[in-house]
Description:
The complex is a heterodimer. Chain A is an alpha/beta fold.
Amino acid sequence: xxxxLVTILGKTVKKVAGLRxxxxxxxxxxxxxxxxxxxxxxxxxxxxxxxxxxxxxxxxTTTKMVVELLESQxxxxxxxxxxxxxxxxxxxxxxxxxxxxxxLHADIAVLELDEAHAVHFVDKxxxxxxxxLNVMRDQLDRFGEIDNTTNMLRHVADAxxxxxxxxxxxxxxxxxxxxLIDKKVRFFGLDDSLLTLxxxxxxxxxxxxxxxxxxxxxxxxxxxxxxxxxxxxxxxEITIKIxxxxxxxxxxxxxxxxxxxxxxxxxxxxxxxxxxxxxxTPAFGRGETLNVNGRQLELVLVKNPSGFQLGLKSFxxxxxxxxxxxxDNYADGRDMSWLWDVDFTSLNEKGVDQISGIRAYDMALRxxxxxxxxxxxxxNIKTALKKFxxxxxxxxxxxxxxxxxxIIIRKNLAKITDVEVIK
Amino acid sequence: MNDKIITILNLYxxxxxxxxDRGNVLCLQRRLEWYGYQPQVIEYNQGDIFPENVxxxxxxxxxxxxxxxxxxxxxxxxxxxxxxxxxGVSMLMICGLYQLFGKFFKTSDGEIIEGIxxxxxxxxxxxxxxxxxxxxxxxxxxxxxxxENHSGQTFLGHNVQAFGRVRxxxxxxxxxxxxxxxxxxxxxxxxxxxxxxxxxAVADFLIEQAAIRKYGDFNVKGLDDxxxxxARKIAIKRPR
Lengths: 423, 240
């Protein structure tokens, strides 16, 4: 079938699927079957090529940052905004953006890809740039061991044509540089004084001291507060106002800056770059703040021990009402072991107001062993959410939730506040 | 709180700690406190001096790279561990260390990794990974619930008993219904979850044996296990 026809068919499926509230991947699936090279052909036309962002934590917000920073430099950027970070999701996002002839009017594509999908994607479409954020224990039931995951990410770096951006402080990621002989490599890093705030997987699970490296980093996060961050770029300190809730988002800003510097090169407009970075807000569920009847409600997505631990570290529980919602559907990971790798003692003083989700009692059991008080447990997320909001009258609220739990929470919140619902 | 100390040795805590194995140590620590004992946790890693007075030994799973790092040291302390096991010390070995407590692990390439032979078991690396929720049944402990994730398949010899019989899931291998192994007060198992908090009867067995061995008695005091009761009920009904 010729490309324009495939495009029209795909766009039609997308429209129909959208009408019946279907998932974002279905039209992509259809196109993938009748025209398997659709993505490859369309993306190969882009003048600045393809950027792949992968790693365990922070992909979605980092991708959002990179897109907004590139746009500040006047580029037209294609991205898989729906958070559907599988190949099919990319195809579906493309269908939304191409014209009827199947042409994509963009300068560059910035794609967030899950490790397991990135491996296959780069074999078909070698990226010009890649950014590898970190590797942490996550969904081990899907990927196997963390060393396997590292190998997947190494493969992505290997397939990259021009420049690979790596996290200097994650020793598994930093070590990827050794095998990249004919490629440009840039690091983003942390000032020594911040190393203990951002534990790598090994720091999180044992007491090995943090090993300092002396590789020069392109962008270093040197200090930060609630609303500002200082980066060391080309030996110049630059302090930027930020709207990024959560310390991991701030470190990933260093990653985004380094990537954008590699792409734009000497022509970079620094003042526009800084202005754009100060306006970036976290992606949905990554520390995003909603307004519910005049009260603040924060949603923090938790998917793995390191993410949960950083979330607990980022957000001070003292003035907040807290709810934790744990599901174990396929997208969340079925194995509950990960809850035992998170230290919940920061919640000792205030306790937890509401626990919910399919595995609410696993969460309760975990908190019992950290001697954290629990006020209410209700497996049903809808009724638990109602009770949480009504029983914690004047305080701001914070909900830690797994992925499928977040989808249900958003759907229910949409009835009482303005919130983007994920289909 | 009395002054009765129970010492828990966390074996290779730096390299063999995957899948929430630290939950097992935390569980023993808290339950001992709740029972009125003074738990003391010692971490042992390769090259350390092996401590003298140990009451309970806990070991976990590791990645291939982690197992590579500890295997020489494990062979070195193997005779000590065997003697302690024969003396009735309580031990729990999960996944990777369960395999290495056996006679050997033969990889799918035919390479043989020697174990310490404390448990009469043999393990063979396979391409298929056995992953998912698992429920086994044991005369001593009732239902045992957890999550398995392993590609090694283990076969029991005559000098060990199975830890449980598989009701849902795979267990030691795809040929028989056994899961894990028991020898004296040593338990080996593939179950994560973590195993002990999710199965307090097993935790209390390890504690009771340790307390009797050291102090001659153990006075059971009922703990509040209401959350775990619910958590187990739900876990049993979840898809594999």
